[in-house]
Amino acid sequence: MIEIHPGNLSLAQLRRINLSHEEISLDTSALPKIAKAADAIGTIAAKGEPAYGVNTGFGRLATTHIDYDRLELLQENLVLSHAVGVGLPMEDPVVRLVMVLKIASLARGHSGIRFEVIDALIKLYNAGVMPIIPSKGSVGASGDLAPLAHMATILIGVGEVRIDGVRTSALVGLNRAGLKPLKLAPKEGLALLNGTQASTAFALHGLFSIETLFATATVAGSLAVDAAAGSTVPFDDRIHQLRGHIGQIEVAKKYRELLSGSEINFSHQDCAKVQDPYSLRCQPQVMGAIFDQIIHASKIIEIEANSVSDNPLVFPDTLEVLSGGNFHAEPIAFAADNLAIAASEIGALAERRIALLIDSSLSGLPPFLVREGGVNSGFMIAHVTAASLASENKSLAHPASVDSLPTSANQEDHVSMATFAARRLSEIANNVAVILGIEILVATQGIDLRAPHKTSNALAKVTEIVRRKVAHYEIDHYLAPDIDVARQMVEEGVIANSYPGWTTTSGLDLP
C-alpha cells in the first residue's frame, strides 16, 4: 500500500507506481482541506457572482454567464466536449501515474472538488480499472485537457477502460470498483481536466527508463574500454577534480571501480598507444554531463508532480477564486527536452563504441568480432541497426518547447508542447535500449576474444549474466533474437543492477 501525502510524493513512490500496480490510500489529514475548498465553491456558486469555471464558460467563452440550475450540465458538457484525444492509448504505467498525480493535486485543497470524486479515482485505481486515455491531443497548456478529459469521462460513465489488459466500457469499470456514475458539482469537471498530470506522467515514465539506460551505459562503456584494450588513465580522479563538475567526478569514479583489477588492462600497460578515441576516453565528461541533466530534470519533475496546476485556484480562507496559469507546462517541456537530448547522447556515444570495437584497426580484435571473417559477417550489420537508431534519435531529440501554436481563438496564444516533449522520451529510450543491448553483446564478445586475459571481477559478473542468455558468437546465425534478449536485459535493469554502485531503485541519488 502506498499512502499519498499531497504535496509530498517522492520519486521513490512514483517509481513504484510506474513499475507495478499497488493499492494506494490518501493521507486522512488532507480531508479537511478538501472539504473546505469544496464548501467554498458551493458558497461562491450559490451567490451567483461571476467566477471563471464555476458559473462561466471556458477559454474564450469565459465571459458567458451560466445560470445556477445549469451548472451540473456545464461540467458534464465540458468533460464530454474535451475528450478529443487520438492515437494509441497510454500504457498502464503512464495511466497509473496520471491518476495518482491528479489525486494528489486535487487533494491539496485548492481545486474545490469534493472528496467523493477523489475517492472514486482512488477506488478505480485500486480495482485495477485503467481509463483508456489516447496519447495525443494535448499542447501542454490550459492543462492536458484532452487526455485528462478521457480519464474524467469514466467517472460519469462514458468511455472505455482497461482491466487486466482487456478493453471494456466505463460502466463495467465503475461496477468493478463498486461505483456508479457521478454527477459533477460546480468546477469539478474543470478541476479534473485542467492540470499538467499527463505531461508529468509521461516525463516520469521517461525519466525512470533513462535512469536505467544511464546506469547500463556506464557498465557497457566500461566493458568496451576493456574489450578495446583501452586505458584507465582518463578516469584518474585528479583529472576530474580539476574541472569540478559533480557528475563527471562521480562517473569517473564508477569507471575506476568497474575496471579495477582487470587482467586485460594490466596486460597492455606498456603498449605504444598514447590516447584512446573520445568514445572511450571522454566517457566521464559526456556521461557526467548526462548525469547532471538527469538529476536536474528529476528535481523539476518531482516539484511538478507535487504541484497544484489546475485553474482557477480556490483559496477557501478568503473565499477567493483566482485565475492564473499553473496549467502551463513549460517546466516539464524544458525538463523533457533536456532528458531527450541526454538520452540521445547515451545512444550516440554507445554507437561510437560499437563502431570502434568492430573496427580491427582501432580495437585490435578480429574484424567485426568474428573469426573467419568473410564467410562470417559477425556484428557488421548489428552496428548498422545501432547507427540507424542513433540517427533517428537526433530528430526525436529536437526541442519541442521551442514550438507553439495558438489555440482557443487566440485566448491560449502560447503553449508548451510539454506533452509531446515528454511522450517521445519513451521512443528515444526504446531506441537507446537496443543500441546498448547491441553494445553489451559486442563488448562481451570482445572480452571473450581477449582470453586468456580476464576482465575485472565486477565486469566478469556482467559477462556471465550475458552468456547465460546469449552464447558466444562463433559463426553467423539468426542474430535478431540475441539483440532482443539483450534489449530486454537493458530495459529490465539486469545490466544496471549487476553493479550495485548504480542502482535504479535509488534514483541515482548523489552520495
Measured on Cα atoms, how large is the radius of gyration? Answer: 26 Å
**N-to-C CA distance:** 28 Å
Q: Can you say what the CATH homologous superfamily of the largest domain is? A: Fumarase/aspartase (Central domain)
Q: What's the total helix number?
A: 20
| Largest sheet: number of strands, sense, barrel closure | 3 strands, antiparallel
Number of domains: 2
Global outline: elongated
Point out poorly predicted stretches.
none
Number of strands: 9
CATH topological fold name of the largest domain = Fumarase C, Chain A, domain 2
Cross-link (5-imidazolinone (Ala-Gly)): 141-143
InterPro entries: Aromatic_Lyase, Fumarase/histidase_N, HutH, L-Aspartase-like, Phe/His_NH3-lyase_AS
GO biological process, one term: L-histidine catabolic process to glutamate and formate
Enzyme class: lyase
